[in-house]
Design a protein that fits this description.
Blueprint lengths: L2 H24 L12 H31 L1
Keywords: Membrane, Transmembrane, Transmembrane helix
């Protein structure tokens, strides 16, 4: 695996951890027994996007800075 794939895996793991923390703080949960397409699923996907974008930007900036130093 190259550096880019390790970065992608780290971004997803970091996003997952932050999303789980938000779930615990807000008490948000849902199950698929309520139906596949429901408002809680949409809220969950929006939360993932809201957290993923800044995490990816931070990782990109850190990786770019480390490449400039080399």
């Amino acid at each position: 695996m190259n550096k880019k794939s390790y970065g992608s895996i780290l971004i997803i793991i970091t996003t997952y951890i932050i999303v789980r923390i938000v779930y615990k703080l807000t008490g948000f949960n849902y199950s698929f027994s309520e139906g596949i397409l429901n408002t809680k699923l949409i809220i969950d996907l929006i939360l993932w996007i809201i957290i993923y974008v800044p995490v990816k930007n931070i990782f990109d900036k850190v990786l770019l800075q480390s490449k400039e130093k080399v």
